Amino acid sequence: MKSVKLNNGNSMPMLGYGVFRVEDGEQLADKVYFAIEQGYRSIDTAAIYGNEASVGQGINQAIEAGLVKREDLFVTSKVWNADLTFEQTKAAYQESLEKMKLEYLDLYLIHWPGKDKFLEAYRALEELYKEKKVKAIGVSNFQVHHLEELLSTASVVPAVNQVEFHPRLIQADLRAYTKKKGIHLEAWSPLMNGELLAQPLLEELSAKYGKSPAQIVLRWDIQHDVITIPKSMTDKRIIENKEVFDFEIQLEDMERLDQLDDGTRSGPHPDEFDF
After folding, report:
1. Cα 185 to Cα 187: distance, rounded to the nearest angstrom
2. In terms of Cα–Cα distance, which of 128, 124, 17 is closest to 73?
3. What is the pTM assigned to this prediction?
4. Residue 37 backbone class (left: φ over 0; alpha: ψ -120 to 50; beta: rest)
5. How far from the centroid of its chain's Cα atoms is residue 241's Cα?
6. Would residue 177 show up in a list of annotated catalytic residues for this protein?
7. Which top-level group of life is the source organism from (predicted)?
8. pLDDT one-digit tens code per residue, 166-201
9. Measuring CA to CA, how many Å separate 188 from each of 11, 95, 243?
10. Options 3.20.20.100, 3.90.10.10, 3.90.180.10, 3.40.50.150; which CATH number does 3-258 get?
């Protein structure tokens, strides 16, 4: 797995295993274990997903089986909108650790900016970071104006901004801004929940490169220097999704994929999300 160096010097895998909309339970724990067994080293969850316990179970089983050491893994979770006061955010972090039965997280994010509480929540993240209780901190679903407001008071520049990103939503202005500020972009819903995969261009490029449409999109993410966290509960696809480091999309094809951009979102707009 290729990794990138974050702005605080820590390394983060370019490809991770996402668990959005996956029910808590043994099946998820088994898939997290399987993903680690297959070479995944980054696991992404969130409090609102309601599945941190199973994610932690799969991680701890992999560690106990000797597949990895804890320090080999990069584990992310996120504080939900209901817990964005200073004290609530700190308590939410501790609750996530307890559910996952982990001593620390590698990355902790504010899940959505909301209307007016993210500055207080980020101050709590900064304290957790300075106390060395978390390896890196960041945000999710932040637009340029949210980042500008945050950076006007922050003492720690976010390491990551996790946003919806795929060929129909390439977020060019946001990507340029985060690059300038040293914030690494990470894609959630890189495959638009599968909706993207029937695009004729993806089928054409799939035939050209001998890769699946999903692999084409994930490779497109990586060549844009965007971390990506596809979700799957199918062993075959979990394996397939990681096999994107043995080919390169030509520049002209990257540009053709970029031209699919029409601003379409599979999730809510951060400025319109109903909290």
Report:
1. 7
2. 17
3. 0.97
4. alpha
5. 15
6. no
7. Bacteria
8. 999 999 999 999 999 999 999 999 999 889 999 999
9. 19, 23, 18
10. 3.20.20.100
